[in-house]
């Protein structure tokens, strides 16, 4: 097989695996690392998916016919380590809308209350401010430093972005508001 086809296949496998992991995390709402087939059916209904999905998950992940899919079975089938899922769960936030419907959470590790506060503050700053994103980022940073203590980082971007960063536990919040994506986190002193 040519190298470019191998690369394309590898990318497809990673995308499918990522989608399966996201689905598991969304279905496992109680974080007990076990999902039932009733949970899967509810998930399929909520997302307008064909119920065939439930049968496929049963065939793939419930080889012992226990009626549940455990995280360990899930990982074993996909060749993953449960620790990798645990670290992803920490970064994963169910896409439950905040009180302000214009804000779409991309990723968060902070409390819901803090997301609401920061989201509201940024929402009003964007409505008050006719300045550039550069000045808006600085204004948001100064506000967060004053309200929650120093060392906040603020990035405003549009389109795709990738980030690798170190932050204090439970202080990261990435969200979309209008055409901008706001990447906000607090670093150690």
From TrEMBL:
SMART domains (UniProt xref)? Dynein_light (SM01375)
Q: Which CDD domains match?
A: DLC-like_TAL
A GO biological process this protein is involved in?
Answer: microtubule-based process
Quote the Pfam families the UniProt record gives.
Dynein_light
Signal peptide positions (record) = 1-18
Is the Hydrolase keyword given for this protein? no
Instruction: Give Gene Ontology CC terms.
Output: dynein complex
Keywords, comma-separated and alphabetical: Signal
The protein here is known as Tegument antigen
Q: Which organism is it from?
A: Clonorchis sinensis (Chinese liver fluke)
């Amino acid at each position: 097989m040519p190298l470019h086809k191998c690369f394309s296949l590898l990318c497809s496998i990673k995308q499918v695996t990522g989608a399966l992991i996201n689905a598991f995390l969304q279905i496992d709402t109680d974080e007990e690392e076990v999902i039932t087939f009733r949970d899967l059916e509810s998930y399929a209904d909520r997302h307008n998916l064909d119920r065939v999905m439930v049968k496929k998950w049963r065939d793939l992940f419930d080889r012992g016919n226990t009626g549940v899919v455990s995280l360990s079975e899930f990982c074993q089938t996909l060749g993953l380590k449960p620790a990798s899922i645990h670290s992803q769960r920490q970064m994963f936030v169910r896409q439950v809308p905040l009180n302000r419907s214009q804000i779409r959470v991309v990723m968060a590790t902070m409390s819901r209350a803090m997301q609401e506060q920061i989201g509201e503050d940024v929402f009003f700053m964007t409505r008050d401010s006719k300045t550039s994103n550069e000045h808006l980022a600085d204004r948001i940073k100064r506000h967060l430093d004053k309200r929650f203590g120093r060392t906040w980082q603020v990035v405003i971007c549009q389109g795709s972005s990738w980030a690798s960063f170190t932050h204090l536990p439970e202080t990261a919040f990435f969200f979309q508001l209008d055409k901008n994506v706001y990447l906000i986190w607090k670093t150690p002193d």
